[in-house]
Amino acid sequence: MKKSRLLPSMLSILLGTSLLVGCGGQATTSSGGESGGESSSGGGGEIHAKIGVVSFLSGSGAAYGEAQKAGLELAQEELNEANKGKLKIDLLFEDSGGKKESAINAVNKLINQDNVVAIIGPTLSGEMFAAGPIASEAETPIFGISNTAEGINDIGEYVFRNSLPESIAIPAAMKKAVDKLGIKSVAFIYASNDDFSVSGFETMKKTAEELGLENLGESTFSIGDVDFSAQLTKIKELNPDALLVSGLYKEGSLIVKKARELGIESTIIGGNGFNNPKVFEIAGDASEGLIVATPFSPEKKDEKVQAFVKAFEAKYGKQPDQFAAQAYDALYIMSQSLLAAGEADRNKLRDSLAQLKDFEGVSGKLSFDENRNPIGEAVVVVGKGGKYVPFE
Predict the structure, then answer these.
(1) Which of 139, 301, 304, 308 would you call most buried, defined as having the most Cβ atoms within 10 angstroms of its Cβ?
(2) 3-class SS at 331?
(3) Could you tell me the maximum CA-CA distance found in the chain, to the nearest angstrom?
(4) What predicted TM-score, i.e. pTM, was given to this entire model?
(5) How far apart are CA 18 and CA 385, in angstroms?
(6) 172: closest CA among 378, 382, 392?
(7) DSSP state of 53
(8) Residue 55 forms beta bridges with which residues?
(9) What is the pLDDT of residues 131-152, one digit of tens each?
């Protein structure tokens, strides 16, 4: 790995400026600029950086990718205005459809054909496990904005993420639920064919053991399933104080809905896959009382968060979720690091990203540890009236 000599950090300058401006197939699209051209000005003028994005834009989990795309495009718009003459960012989007093979093809294309300086995504942890090694081997920074499974950063030294690991978020939700609700026994249900969901289940089970909770049983399903009656009927007979669900939003929401239809009254605690507004659309009234942990809440009384929510609502007509917020923060982190590096060079950008400390984003304060994992805090929220509110 080539080392670089970093320029002084531009964090305070960048953030101060940013506040002034408002805070299917493998088709490639460029947002805000042409898809070709040089990746750097190369002469001390404006840095021109092409950043690839691999996102889940079609299929059963498209709401994740749509939220990420929206957050990235809002940040791009703000940053290109704030950094005129210094830095221009082009985003090149690739749709993985949530499939590992598509993510691999997209990463190869962005690196070898489009000559991007870095890649944001892919959306799912399983996709990152498949495609991340390719980027790391090619010495191209790849930045996860929703990869929460254990082991993501072990892929290679060019792999980063600002998505808070399930190992932090899930225990926060479970501990708060136990303290407030007196939970003594639990049952589990998780998607056994998805890396993210399996990792979430393993964290849930470990945390339950640490908290001294009685494990009444474990059930599985597959991504794409629509009928969970058999598993939930057995869980109802077990009558746990809490049902822990690890899966993506579509299947997870259907499980919550069916559980309530069957008369299961257990507290339901979900993993990171539940942090999407589609949960309330699919589960409806059954989402009342659903507990999850997230690094971002649009209800947070914070000036930066509320400025972001206002700008997002003005552009898209709806509130941002965690996936939009982490995508938005990721591009600000990338912009700050490119300015510090002084040019759109993959190795210099990698070293600049690794220096991140105390970044103040809309999804909280963030630093990277020595393994490029995010250091941050989770907020525990509960479903109430069709949205998540702080679980007090």
Answers:
(1) 308
(2) helix
(3) 70
(4) 0.83
(5) 33
(6) 378
(7) E
(8) 95
(9) 999 999 999 999 999 999 989 9
